[in-house]
Amino acid sequence: xxIIGIMQGRLSPPRTDRIQGFPWTSWEQEFEHAADIGYxxxxxxxxxxxxxxxxxxxxxxxxxxxxxxFETGVATPSICAxxxxxxxxxxxxxEEAEHSSNTLVQLIDYSAEVGAxxxxxxxxEVAEIKSEQDADNLLRYLExxxxxxxxxxxxxxxxxxxxxxxxAALVQKASSPRCGVYLDLGNATxxxxxxxxxxxxxxxxxxxxxIKDRVLGGPSVLLGTGDLDVxxxxxxxxxxxxxxxxxxxxAFTDKYLDIAKxxxxxxxxxxxxxxxx
Length: 277
Prior knowledge:
The protein starts with a strand and ends with a helix. By secondary structure, the chain is of the alpha/beta class. It is globular. Helix 1 packs parallel to helix 2 (about 60-70) and helix 9 packs across helix 10. The chain has helices at about 25-35, 60-70, 85, 95-115, 130-150, 165-175, 185-190, 195-200, 230-240, 255-275; strands spanning about 5, 40-45, 80, 120, 155-160, 180-185, 205-210, 215, 220, 245-250.
C-alpha cells in the first residue's frame, strides 16, 4: 500500500439526503483538512447531478484541482464515477449506453490531466449486473473507454457485489490490462464473503480498495464497529504486495474531522502491526 486516502465529502458536513455527495462549497477546503490530518490523497467524486459543473469537467476546474493538490501535497489518484450508477451501460437504449461510453472516454482524459490513474466504475444498485446479457453489454460498451484508458495509462476499476469467481471472470473477459477490480471491503463483508481469501484470488487484478465497515446484511457503520475483519483483510493486502491506494469511504457524522482522524490512526496502526509481524 503506497497511500491512504479519503473519499471526497468525508471531510465536510454530511448531507441530509444521502451518505455520499459532492461537496460543492467545501471541496477546496477538504484538501487542507486532508493534509492537516495526514491523508495523502482524496478520491474525487463524479456524479450525474450537475456533472457539467463539476470542476473536473472544465479546464479551469482541473487547473484548480492541480493547484490545490500541489499546495497541500494531497494527491487525487482516483475518481469515483458514481455518474454511471444513474447512467449505466445496460438495460437502457443503445443511444444512452453509447452516450455513457463516450462520457467515460472523456472522463479518462480529464482524470489523466489531474493525475488520477484509476477510475472506479460502480456496477451497483440500479446498475447491478443481473444477467449474462448485462455483463456482455457492459463489456461491449467498455471497449472504447478501455482502449482510451490504455493510451492514457488509466485503469478502470469495476466495483460489483458479485462473488469473487464471477467478479474475476468479468474483469478477465474484458481482455484489457487496464480493467481491474476495485474492491469495497465493507460491501463484500455485508454480503458474507470471505474477503481475505478473495483478496488472495484477485491479486494482480486489484487496482483500488475502499475501506468501509458494514454489518452482515446491513448498512455502513463506523470503522471498527461492524463485521469487517480489519486485521485479516489488511494482512491479506500485505501478503499479495498491494501497493496502490486505500481509500476510506466510511460512515461518518457531524464530527467528521474527528472520525477522519480516528480512522486514519486505526488503519495506520493495523498496517504497522502487520509489518512488524
